[in-house]
Specification:
- The complex is a heterodimer of chains A (234) and B (225).
- Chain A has 234 residues and is an alpha/beta fold.
- Chain A has helices at residues 42-50, 72-75, 91-101, 107-117, 133-147, 163-178, 190-196, 219-228; strands at 2-13, 16-27, 31-35, 57-62, 65-66, 76-79, 151-155, 182-186, 199-204, 207-213.
- In chain A, strands 6-7-8-3-9-10 form a 6-stranded mixed β-sheet, sandwiched between helices. A 4-stranded antiparallel β-sheet of chain A has the order 2-1-4-5, with helices on one face.
- The longest helix of chain A has 16 residues, at 163-178.
- The model of chain A has no long low-confidence stretch (mean pLDDT 90).
- With 225 residues, chain B is an all-alpha fold.
- Chain B has 10 helices and no strands.
- In chain B, helix 1 packs across helix 5 (93-122) and helix 3 (47-78) runs parallel beside helix 7.
- The chains are: A alpha/beta (234), B mainly alpha (225).
- The A-B interface holds A 50, 52-54, 73-74, 76-78, 80, 82-90, 93, 97-98, 100-103, 127, 143, 147, 149 and B 2, 5-6, 9, 12-13, 16-17, 20-21, 23, 76, 79-91, 224-225.
């Protein structure tokens, strides 16, 4: 059964069409990676899927209900280009705040468990603005683990990270997949994105060139598409 | 209960943010002191004149210092898109709004207490402290109106390119009834006409209810896109 269904979605910013006739469904244990060059519409697509942006035309459903009638916002975790963290608060306070919003019992225990799992326990008393970019992204992702959402929407989760942190974040995202959660992710990093996917999509000029099962796509094909669009990717 | 719990969590988070960053309150206190010093030097008032001008001076200081503080608290939500952690949670837009309005109310009241004390000292006008129990009603209700409107508009304007410029124009236009009510009712109380002040205090209360109802309706749409 599909968790998300997007039908005929179009998004226009004044004269520019960012998305044009997008159809996509996300199953309950799906894992989709969306590739595409800069300006293809990946961020717009993920914002629309998350519900923080409304489409100009088309329909969006969560559990067969229209977004506005559904509980999607408490069951979805969205991590965009920014970390959605309060920089002046400490690591522990950011997590504690999330626990309070979600009425999580045994807050201190839950926060300790998640921070230890994510290697952030030692930094719990440090303000977020003193963390490295990699640690911030990891903390931002840790919020998703504590709230136990049904769908993770991750927009370029590896951007600005060195190899060590990329590997670390990649491992955590793989963990999400093994827990039977749905994931949709956009990235320029072909190998990482490919490794995470059950299905692969390629977006170009606001349209899907394809959405296929991973077995039906060769990784070289993705590299070739990026090359043909004049974009060098890793 | 969950509604109140979420609003309380947001209020608690804002207090922590203020304790850590000291951005909003310290700016408000500094501006209020600066404005009072300017008024004190520029007007050079005797005791009689202070009594008639006090409420006007105070509400100008409250309004301008308040705008500055409320702009900062909504900027804290926009930085790093931190507000999305509330959007993607069981907290309703209404509980988000109430939590933010309460934290703004708290910071405004602290700034106003400081302003009243500074006013009493700078203008040698201890009467304003002696009459504080009577002044509380217009002060708290007027500040509530400020906070209700300011919370909505600060979110609306920080999302736009010229937000910081737009905020004072929109905000001051809409809170004019509350400022007028506050100036007139506090002026009456300071000049011994407590009975006459009540109809103005009631008017502020009516506007507060109106602001609350409209803001609750609009804030949901503000969070949509």
């Amino acid at each position: 059964m599909n968790l998300i269904e997007i039908k005929g979605v179009m998004k226009q910013y004044h004269a520019k069409t960012a998305l044009n006739g997008i159809d996509i469904s996300i199953g309950k244990q799906d894992s989709i990676t969306v590739f595409g060059p800069n300006g293809a519409g990946k961020t717009t697509l993920l914002k629309i899927i998350s519900g923080i942006m409304s489409p100009t035309a088309g329909n969006t459903y969560y559990n067969k209900k229209k977004y506005s009638d559904s509980d999607m916002r408490k069951e979805v975790f969205y991590l965009g280009h920014k970390t959605s963290l309060y920089n002046a608060l400490t690591v522990g306070e950011n997590m504690d705040f999330i626990c309070r919003l979600f009425s999580i019992n045994h807050r201190a225990e839950s926060v300790r468990k998640i921070l230890k799992e994510h290697g952030l326990w030692e930094r719990r008393r440090d303000p977020v603005n003193e963390l490295s970019q990699g640690m911030k992204r990891r903390l931002a992702l840790a919020k998703g683990f504590i709230t136990d959402p049904k769908l993770f929407i991750l927009d370029e989760p590896f951007t600005g990270l060195d190899l060590r942190w990329r590997t670390s974040i990649l491992a955590k995202i793989k963990e999400i997949s093994t827990q039977g959660k749905a994931i949709i992710i956009s990235t320029h990093l072909v190998e990482e994105g490919f490794a995470l996917a059950k299905r692969v999509a390629f977006l170009h000029k606001g349209k899907f060139l394809f959405i296929k099962k991973k077995e039906e796509v060769k990784i070289e094909e993705i590299y070739r598409l990026f090359d043909s669009m004049g974009e060098t990717v890793k | 209960m969950r509604f109140l719990g979420n609003a309380a969590a947001i209020l608690r988070k804002d207090i922590l943010l203020e304790l850590r960053g000291r951005e909003s309150l310290s700016l408000m206190l500094f501006l209020s002191l600066l404005l009072l010093v300017i008024f004190n030097i520029a007007l050079d008032l005797d005791k009689e004149s202070v009594s008639s001008l006090a409420s006007g001076i105070l509400w100008v200081v409250f309004a301008f210092s308040g705008i500055l503080g409320m702009g900062r608290t909504s900027m804290a939500e926009r930085d790093e898109e931190a507000y999305l952690s509330i959007v993607f949670s069981p907290a309703t837009p209404e509980s988000f709004y109430i939590g933010k309005a309460l934290s703004n109310l708290l910071f405004l009241l602290i700034m106003e207490c400081f302003t009243l004390l500074s006013f009493a000292v700078l203008f040698d006008f201890e009467k304003i402290i002696l009459l504080l129990p009577q002044l509380l009603a217009p002060l708290v209700l007027g500040t509530l109106g400020f906070s209700l409107v300011g919370t909505l508009f600060s979110f609306l304007t920080t999302a736009t390119r010229y937000g910081e410029i737009l905020l004072p124009f929109l905000y001051l236009t809409v809170v004019i009834p509350v400022i007028l009510g506050g100036v007139i009712s506090m002026g009456m109380i300071l000049n011994g006409n407590t009975d006459g002040a009540w109809k103005w205090i009631q008017m502020i209360a009516v506007f507060d209810l109106l602001y609350l109802a409209v803001s609750l309706l609009l804030f949901r749409y503000l969070m949509e896109d």
